[in-house]
Amino acid sequence: MDGTPKRPPERIKSLIRLIKNSGLYPQNPIVNSATTEPVIWVDGRDHLLFCSNNLLGLSNHPDVKEAAAKALNRYGLGSGGSRQMAANIDVHRALERRIAEYVGQEDAICFAAGYMANVGAIPAVLKVDFIEALAKVHLGYESTLPEEASVTPAWEIFSEELNHASVVDGVRLAKAKISKFPHKDMETLKAQLAASDSETKFIISDGVFSMDGDIAPIPRLVDLAKDHDALLMIDDAHGVGMLGPNGRGSLEHLGVSTSQVDLQMGTFTKAFGGVGGYIAGDREIIDFLRISARTYIFSAPLPPAVAAGVAEAIDIAEREPWRREKAMENARYFRREVQAMGFDTLGSEAHIVPVLIGNEMDAAEFTRLLRHRGIVAPHARFPAVALGQARIRFVMTCEHERDQIDFLLKCLGEARETLNL
């Protein structure tokens, strides 16, 4: 060897070969049927699916598909541009009004994906200083155009340790001071807020944590935000449609008024069986996001057919609470039984029930053993979770039957015995 560093493409190829040879590269199955049902067709046979986010079974509901089909016939496949141009279609606005009404906020803004909602909205909020200065120039109060700052020193963001990756990326893009607080540790957050000398404070937390299935202490977050005059945002992607007496999400579940949370994020991918994300809040704050969130301004919106289908799904979820109740009962049953077998479910409280394996190689082998028995349930490992905290992340839906869950429990016990864990 001459010591010449390898070019990046060569390094990438070498690394991928190493990961594949180790058995750690994800072996995602090619599915030949809808991936939203409890039974799917893989490699020529049926498999039980325990990782679908189609929690309420609405993705293939006939009324949802009919609403989507009608919109497809009326509007076509795509929108033809961004909503700031000519693609501000009535069906998009109807969906925004419907989801805002459902979660109890004044208005909402929709994005093509939940990831885009967080990545767009979080840094957009911090643009208030720049746009405020810009507005003064356009209105004749100032004569010099401001420069958009590369950092926003007046702001400090307090971000929960286990926030979703989309929140983490949104926080990084915000270009503010960042203070990360340990998982559900309100005393540390309280101390961080008290020690901060930043002019504006912004607290962000998931409602239901996607890899652990536990719920944030939102009432304490509300109190701390009030005490320190901080903006509060809750990412309730996994809570809306599932938690609370009426399925309104983590806030309703914990008795928190929507007026106490400034920004409420959610998705249409989980409970409502579609795709897309939204931010809900006071009308004027949502109007501000429409002129400041880059993932809204510079991207095409949801396909009109999806928007129409999701609006119908919200209606069904509201009038058929048995779907939410059965999904949660399935989760309670599975969690109770798997804990009785000695597995650690990491404090799960919702429909997401992780089973801790620990070692990444063991988790990969556990997944393969389950696949051999006809169960699709991929494991989560670094960087989705901390090193040494690999787990199988099971998701219970309203369409799972008790005998299917019992078969899963049986296979879990057999796999653990095989691996001597």
From TrEMBL:
UniProt keyword list: Aminotransferase, Pyridoxal phosphate, Transferase
Domain Aminotransferase class I/classII large: from-to ranges: 46-409
Molecular function, one GO term: transaminase activity
InterPro entries: Aminotrans_II_pyridoxalP_BS, Aminotransferase_I/II_large, AON_synthase_class-II, PyrdxlP-dep_Trfase, PyrdxlP-dep_Trfase_major, PyrdxlP-dep_Trfase_small
Superkingdom, taxonomy of origin: Bacteria
Co-factor(s): pyridoxal 5'-phosphate
UniProt similarity note: Belongs to the class-II pyridoxal-phosphate-dependent aminotransferase family.
Name of this chain's protein: Pyridoxal phosphate-dependent aminotransferase family protein
Source species of the chain: Ruegeria sediminis
